[in-house]
Design a protein that fits this description.
Blueprint lengths: L4 H24 L8 H11 L5 E4 L6 E6 L7 E7 L26 H16 L8 E7 L7 H7 L10 E8 L7 E3 L2 E4 L1 E10 L3 E2 L9 H18 L7 E9 L6 E2 L2 E10 L2 H21 L3 E8 L4 E3 L1 H15 L4 E3 L10 H7 L2 E7 L25 H16 L8
Parallel strand pairs: 3-4, 3-5, 5-16, 6-15
Antiparallel strand pairs: 1-2, 2-4, 6-16, 7-14, 8-12, 8-13, 9-11, 10-12
Helix pairs in contact: 1-3, 1-9, 3-9, 5-6, 7-9
């Protein structure tokens, strides 16, 4: 491989204070969705003095920065960092906690953005040593807003043609500095579920004069759990979770209807279709058995995130070369979270991997997970993330990965 591990990590150490400072700046001012003006400006400031060709998004506040190698034409690899936060409070107590009420970087996107900016600085110092292009993709709108799809529409995979893609996601529930991934499906497709059961309202003391939709809704919830474990292949699983039930106005009135919302997670199109068909059938037939009407609607979320198996083996080799033999863990199964990096992997070969950032004095099993109001990270692990972005790009451009889009 074209990099010397100790020398590369020494360079990463040189930028690590800036990486931590950028992460904290972004953490203090979290933003939601596709429009992240403060975060975009923070990225532009971090890249301002580097030899990059930078362009901003049109439909969203993205940043795309290209670094051309000094040795001429060659392949292009895209490195991605997402930038948006979550609509939730922060209760970490850190000195750089969110200053925006009800908004928090609880999924580590502040760290992803900072690591990618740090990698841009390290690789810029090495540009005379490689041929080809490194594209840095700073993406808004990962948390349900399909930001990656918008950036694809705006040409992030073209001009020059991107040959491979690589992304990292921090997780406090893995040992700090350890990289984990797997070939094939690594994250699920998330679909939003909406169910409405319509009965007949009435007085709570006389349910026989009404037609109470509450127990029917409860029966549907139970039936869905049985269906998921008895009608779907254990080795091609789904998760069906009802997360919200809304009905009624007071304690002595039977409501006319019950509205439920939830999520379906699946790791293949086959199980996804089986589950959607089964949910529709259960909702309709359980309601009909009680002489009620029911509707089921769903909104399809991101595709299944599917890694290129050959590129995962390449990622494993890069990790072990850079961080040591014990620094890579093969994931035995996908996780049921979702990622819009899946859109990139539908178009180009590549890999998505997790970086352990378990906080000091915590066990990975006890650390507050992503999307927790108390989620924190070990900032020293950002060193490994910056190093992985750099080493992956250098090794790929040198031809070590025989993967081309």
């Amino acid at each position: 491989m074209p990099f010397e591990s100790a020398a590369l990590l020494d360079q990463v150490d040189g930028v690590l204070p800036d990486v931590v400072a950028l992460r904290r700046r972004i953490h203090r001012h979290p933003e939601l969705g596709l429009q992240l003006p403060h975060t975009q400006q923070a990225v532009l400031d971090a890249l301002a003095d580097l030899p990059l060709t930078v362009r901003k998004g049109e439909a969203l506040t993205s940043v795309v920065a290209d670094l051309e190698g000094g040795r001429g034409a060659g392949p292009t690899i895209l490195l991605r960092g997402d930038m948006d936060a979550l609509p939730m409070p922060e209760d970490t107590g850190v000195e750089f906690a969110s200053e925006v009420d009800g908004t928090m970087h609880a999924c580590g996107h502040d760290a992803h953005t900072a690591m990618l900016a740090g990698a841009a600085r390290v690789l810029s110092a090495q540009r005379d040593g490689f041929a080809g292009t490194v594209r840095f993709m700073f993406q808004p709108g990962e948390e349900g807003f399909h930001g990656a799809r918008f950036m694809i529409d705006e040409g992030v995979l073209d001009d020059p043609h991107v040959d491979a893609v690589f992304g990292l996601h921090v997780t406090p529930n893995a040992p700090s500095g350890v990289v984990s991934s797997r070939g094939g499906a690594i994250m699920a497709a998330p679909d939003v579920l909406a169910i409405r059961v319509r009965g007949k309202g009435g007085h709570a003391s006389s349910p026989y004069l009404a037609n109470d939709p509450m127990p029917v809704a409860a029966e549907i919830v139970t039936a869905l759990q049985v269906f998921a474990t008895r009608r779907i292949d254990t080795f091609d699983p789904v998760v069906i979770t009802i997360t919200k039930i809304r009905a009624g106005t007071t304690n002595n009135v039977i409501p006319e209807d019950v509205v439920m919302e939830g999520t379906l997670r699946s790791v293949s199109e086959r199980s996804r279709r089986l589950a959607l068909d089964g949910i529709a059938r259960i909702v309709s037939h359980v309601a009909a058995a009680h002489e009620m009407d029911a509707t089921f609607e769903h909104v399809e979320g991101y595709p299944v995130t599917i890694n290129d198996r050959q590129f995962v083996r390449f990622t494993e080799a890069v990790t072990k070369r850079l961080l040591g033999e014990q620094a890579y863990l093969e994931m035995p199964a996908p996780v049921m979270g979702a990622e819009d990096f899946s859109y990139l992997l539908q178009k180009r070969p590549g890999a998505f991997a997790f970086l352990g950032v378990c906080p000091p004095n915590h066990k990975p099993t006890d650390a507050h997970a992503c999307h927790s109001n108390r989620m924190m990270i070990d900032e020293s692990a950002l060193r490994s993330g910056v190093g992985m972005y750099c080493a992956t790009a250098l090794a790929f451009l040198d031809g070590d990965a025989q993967v081309r889009g």
